UniProtKB/TrEMBL annotation:
<dbReference type="InterPro" id="IPR036013">
    <property type="entry name" value="Band_7/SPFH_dom_sf"/>
</dbReference>
<dbReference type="GO" id="GO:0005886">
    <property type="term" value="C:plasma membrane"/>
</dbReference>
<feature type="coiled-coil region">
    <location>
        <begin position="393"/>
        <end position="444"/>
    </location>
</feature>
<feature type="coiled-coil region">
    <location>
        <begin position="220"/>
        <end position="258"/>
    </location>
</feature>
<dbReference type="InterPro" id="IPR027705">
    <property type="entry name" value="Flotillin_fam"/>
</dbReference>
<protein>
    <submittedName>
        <fullName>Flotillin family protein</fullName>
    </submittedName>
</protein>
<dbReference type="GO" id="GO:0012505">
    <property type="term" value="C:endomembrane system"/>
</dbReference>
<keyword id="KW-0175">Coiled coil</keyword>
Length: 728
């Protein structure tokens, strides 16, 4: 077994070594190269794949088959002779590579060897003569100028002559790198071809020089001629200019001398007009500034009033929202408590039903026991009689003890009623004293609103105090009487049994409490009635704007009574009541302001009615704006009338435009004159405005003077604001 394993291991090792050696024999080649293998099996070539090369049996060489550039120069004395015998300096680049085929690679390898196959110097030695011969042959077919214009044809001719197959090599392309005419100094006069080239070059250059010189001379002559003509024209123009300037200077002096006085006159007149307009403008600006300041003050007051009203409205809305939120919370709490009470009631109903069931069970059990007892009654009759007698005696003792206990309880309740009566008496006295103090404080604070009314309230407060004291004494007497009655009844009922004593006690207690409550409510109602009468009396003598304030002060005692009642309310109700009072106060203040504004408006209306009773005026505006606008318009009209009456120039303009009352104005007369002259019909006058008539006459006018007059008339009509009016 071990021998077999050794043999297998040796075989595997041999195979691995063989594969490694075999892999080392495989040779790969990069792009642009070719493997040439010689030896056993003949010559082999590989381009895109590798091949096995076994040492001893094979020899491997690498051949470069990429493109190589060969440059062929024909410069100076060796320049290329063209068809017109002009020598040219030229550089041509030829792109050559070994043809990518097995036979061509083998042919090149056998001819030059793999190393020399792509050597530039070797390639140049091989192909330089052939390429130079091709250049000479092709160059003789083209003139020198054609070499520049037909480079592609020149290249194609070279490739056609050389061919693409060069004994294993392939000519991919050729290109002209440099092309220029050979300088004359490098040409030989003894060479017939160079002599011909020199002659042509000389002829061409001389002709071009002659043409260039002729063009330059013609340019100089034309420029000189133009300069002379320009100078003559300039001198003539300068002479004419001097004459014109001298003539114009004389005319200007005459015009200046003639117009000087007129200018001074016009200047003074214009200054007078400007001063008049300035003074009028200053007056109007002063009036406008006063109106502006007044409007600003009014707007500021309106803004302040609006802001105050808006702030009050926001505060009211906030208070209402707060009250509403608290009301909602309170209602939710009440609903919650109501639900809890309902659940408690349901639980009590369930318990009650359970007790009823248990009671029924107990009654049934008791009935069974009674039946059993009845069965034994005959047997234990004597024992029962003795037991009944004993029980009767015990019951009598218990009844006596219970009556004594009820008597003591009644006495305690009577004492409690006396204590409550004393407390109510003291509370009534304190409340009366509080009313008295509050009435005195309010009377002092509101001295400006009427000392007489305050004294009346003080007297009423004292009367209310006395009445409260009397009522408290009555309540005490009634309570003591009721207590004595209850005690007497309890003593009497003691003999009648426990049930009657308990009933009498409850009835007496309820009666006492009810009468006390009735008396207390009656006292509160009478006090409220007294205060209501005082309020009614005060309303008769006070203004409507002070109603809320005086009413609040007069109702001091009422507020105290109401506060005692409101103690039983929650916070939401109390805040709601306070908010109602605040709203009433604000309402009264607003009504007073409206009354003041009404009086102001009545006064303004009476003034305007007297001033404008015969005028037909459309008034636009609200509140006091219409009064201010009317005053403003009257001021503007008075200022304009004063300006027209006191200004001589404006009066002349008025007379020229509107006439003096007997004759029409110059503007209307001018327009009527042109209407008659240009044949404007009556329908045109009836239907067209002044501006439309002037435009129509301008379209028919041929005289420049009339057009100027019509333009002035149109401007004048627009400035006067009558361009849209009709003549008829």
């Amino acid at each position: 077994m071990e021998l077999i394993l050794i043999i297998v291991g040796a075989v595997l090792l041999f195979l691995l070594i063989f594969l490694g050696v075999l892999a080392s024999f495989y040779k790969k080649i990069p792009q642009g190269k070719a493997i040439v293998r010689t030896g056993v099996g003949g010559t082999g070539v590989a381009f895109n794949k590798g091949m096995y090369v076994v040492p001893v049996f094979h020899k491997m060489e690498i051949m470069d088959i990429s493109v190589k550039k060969l440059e062929i120069e024909r410069m100076q004395h060796d320049g290329l002779i063209c068809k017109d015998n002009i020598r040219a300096d030229i550089k041509v680049a030829f792109f050559v590579r070994v043809n990518k085929s097995v036979n061509d690679v083998i042919n090149v390898a056998q001819t030059l060897g793999c190393e020399r196959a792509s050597d530039i110097s070797t390639l140049k030695n091989i192909f330089e003569a052939k390429f130079s011969e091709a250049l000479k042959t092709v160059g003789k077919k083209f003139n020198f100028i054609e070499l520049y214009e037909a480079r592609r044809e020149f290249r194609d001719e070279i490739i056609d002559i050389i061919g693409t197959d060069l004994n294993g090599y392939n000519l991919d392309d050729c290109a002209i790198d440099y092309l220029e005419q050979t300088e004359i100094q490098f040409l030989s006069p003894d060479n017939i071809l160079d002599s011909e080239g020199i002659r042509k070059i000389t002829e061409l250059t001389a002709a071009q020089n002659i043409n260039a010189n002729q063009i330059r001379r013609d340019e100089e002559k034309v420029i000189k001629k133009q300069n002379v003509e320009a100078r003559e024209a300039i001198l003539e123009l300068e002479r004419q200019l001097a004459e014109k300037e001298e003539k114009q200077r004389r005319e200007i002096d005459n015009v200046k001398a003639r117009e000087g006085a007129e200018i001074q006159k016009v200047r003074e007149e214009e200054r007078l007009k400007s001063e008049t307009v300035r003074i009028s403008t200053d007056e109007q600006l002063a009036v406008q500034e006063e109106n502006k300041l007044r409007q600003i003050i009014i707007a500021e007051k309106n803004k302040q009033r609006t802001e105050a009203i808006e702030a009050e409205r926001v505060e009211k809305d906030r208070a209402l929202e707060q009250t509403e939120r608290e009301r909602i919370v309170t209602l939710a709490q009440i609903d919650k408590e109501r639900v809890l009470e309902i659940e408690k009631k349901n639980i009590q109903d369930v318990i009650r039903e359970r007790v009823e069931v248990e009671k029924g069970v107990v009654e049934e059990t008791q009935n069974i026991k009674d039946i059993e007892a009845f069965r034994e009654v005959e047997r234990k009759k004597q024992v029962g009689i003795t037991t009944a007698a004993q029980l009767a005696e015990e019951k009598l003792i218990q009844t006596v003890k219970a009556a004594e206990a009820d008597k003591k309880a009644a006495e305690e309740r009577a004492k409690q009623l006396l204590i409550d009566a004393d407390a109510k008496k003291e509370a009534s006295a304190k409340q009366a004293e509080a009313r008295k103090v509050l009435a005195e404080a309010q009377a002092k604070e509101d001295a400006t609103y009427g000392l007489a009314e305050a004294e009346i309230m003080k007297a009423k407060a004292a009367a209310a105090e006395q009445q409260g004291t009397v009522e408290a004494a009555n309540i005490e007497k009634k309570a003591r009487a009721e207590a004595a009655g209850i005690e007497a009844k309890a003593e009497a009922r003691k003999k009648e049994g426990l049930a009657e004593a308990e009933v009498t006690k409850e009835i007496s207690l309820a009666t006492a409490i009810g009468e006390s409550s009735i008396i207390e409510k009656k006292s509160v109602a009478e006090a409220a009635g007294i205060q209501a009468k005082a309020d009614a009396k005060r309303k008769e003598g006070l203004m409507e704007a002070e109603v809320a304030k005086e009413k609040a002060l007069a109702e001091a005692s009422g507020i105290e009574e109401k506060a005692a009642a409101m103690k039983k309310l929650d916070g939401v109700g109390r805040e709601h009541e306070e908010f109602k009072l605040q709203l009433q106060k604000e309402k009264d203040v607003e009504l007073a302001q409206i009354a003041v504004q009404k009086e102001i408006a009545d006064a303004q209306a009476s003034v305007l009615a007297e001033a404008l009773k015969s005028a037909d005026i459309d008034i636009v505006g609200g509140e006091t704006m219409f009064f201010d606008n009317i005053v403003k318009q009257i001021s503007n009209a008075k200022g304009f009338d004063r300006l027209v009456n006191e200004s001589e120039n404006i009066s002349q303009i008025k007379k020229a435009l509107l006439g003096d009352g007997h004759n029409g104005g110059e503007l209307m007369n001018r327009i009527k004159y042109f209407v008659r002259q240009y044949g404007i019909s009556t329908e045109d006058i009836k239907n067209l405005s002044i501006a439309a008539l002037i435009f129509k006459m301008q379209s028919q006018c041929t005289s420049s003077e009339d057009k100027g007059i019509l333009d002035n008339l149109l401007s004048l009509a627009k400035s006067m604001g009558i361009s849209n009016n009709k003549l008829s």
